[in-house]
């Protein structure tokens, strides 16, 4: 292993999974009306972690603001030597230094009595800066969102974003091992009313001789609630204007709370055999999913 390199780890069963979910603006006429069905989730389901963790609701945001108010102010920056001096008597640092000096003194005495090793046998001291680089070097993390620079379906999502016929709901990618038991991945995107999402369900990826994806996704139509309450005024949200501007999605979600109810749900239940590096399209009258799976390699990161 070359200097500064991380110990090798086996990523031979890892893949990059990328999905694009979208919906047509004009839904196709469909005489089949599905009743509203309660959506169930598998017990071993995994949610892909966001790159940046953010509050999920106005309630969480208010809790975060209150918590930050409880934190002490910015601590004064003190010189390291001064801090060491102030706490020297109340810590074990002085005792530890004494023990270390005694240990080194014993080594010096030993070196004077025993012939030292040949010059080519002397090992170089530890380069602590190099050690820190090795320890803090980023490693691939499974089931965590990848940044857009790793996307392979950017042209497709860009076309959907500019289209007058479709709405892009989500575009995300992550790494995951595909060995042993398959893992259902939670997908929730589109419009959100209370705890309901426009598209909700799971994608399950597995590998045997071929790669496979099993979809269990639901598209839900909403209708305005009868005798719905008036939308909350901005001043009633309990957060200042600057915070509202920083979290527009949470503001919209809070103002639309209790304004809509699920009306119909339509299920996409499919199983598809796939090959890596191929783009696959899963069709449904109310939404679509584009999927691409690529074998992961450290050289690609």
General description of the model:
It is a single chain. The protein has 301 residues and is an alpha+beta fold. It has one domain. It is built from seven helices and eight strands. The chain has helices spanning 58-70, 80-86, 93-113, 128-136, 154-162, 241-246, 248-255; strands at residues 14-24, 166-177, 183-193, 196-207, 211-224, 260-274, 279-283, 288-295. The strands form two sheets. Strands 2-1-8-7 form a four-stranded antiparallel beta sheet, covered by helices on one side. It has a four-stranded antiparallel beta sheet with strand order 3-4-5-6, with no helix packed on it. A hairpin with a 3-residue loop joins β4 and β5.
List the helices and strands and how they pair.
Blueprint: E1 14-24, H1 58-70, H2 80-86, H3 93-113, H4 128-136, H5 154-162, E2 166-177, E3 183-193, E4 196-207, E5 211-224, H6 241-246, H7 248-255, E6 260-274, E7 279-283, E8 288-295
Antiparallel strand pairs: 1-2, 1-8, 3-4, 4-5, 5-6, 7-8
């Amino acid at each position: 292993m070359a200097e500064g390199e991380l110990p090798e780890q086996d990523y031979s069963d890892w893949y990059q999974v990328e999905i694009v979910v979208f919906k047509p603006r004009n839904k196709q006429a469909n005489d089949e009306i599905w009743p509203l069905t309660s959506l169930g989730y598998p017990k071993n389901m995994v949610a892909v972690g966001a790159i940046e963790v953010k509050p999920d609701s106005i309630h969480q945001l208010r809790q975060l603001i209150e918590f930050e108010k409880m934190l002490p102010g910015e601590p004064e920056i003190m010189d390291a030597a001064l801090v060491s001096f102030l706490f020297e008597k109340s810590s074990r640092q002085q005792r530890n230094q004494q023990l270390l000096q005694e240990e080194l003194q014993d080594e010096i005495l030993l070196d004077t009595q025993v012939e030292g090793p040949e010059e080519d046998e002397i090992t170089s001291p530890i380069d602590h800066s190099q050690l820190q680089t090795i320890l803090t070097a980023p490693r691939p993390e499974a089931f965590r969102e990848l940044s857009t620079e790793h996307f392979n379906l950017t042209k497709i999502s860009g076309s959907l974003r500019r289209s007058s016929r479709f709405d892009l709901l989500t575009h995300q990618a992550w790494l995951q091992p595909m060995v042993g038991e398959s893992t259902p991945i939670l997908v929730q995107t589109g419009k959100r009313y209370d705890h309901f999402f426009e598209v909700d369900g799971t994608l399950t990826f597995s590998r045997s001789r071929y790669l496979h994806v099993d979809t269990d996704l639901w598209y839900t139509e909403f209708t305005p609630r009868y005798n719905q309450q008036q939308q909350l005024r901005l001043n009633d949200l309990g957060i200042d204007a600057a915070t509202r501007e920083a979290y527009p999605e949470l503001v919209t979600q809070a103002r639309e709370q209790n304004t809509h109810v699920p009306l119909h749900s339509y299920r996409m239940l499919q199983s598809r055999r796939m090959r890596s590096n191929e783009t696959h399209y899963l069709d449904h009258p109310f939404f679509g999913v584009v999927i691409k799976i690529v074998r992961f390699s450290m050289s690609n990161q």
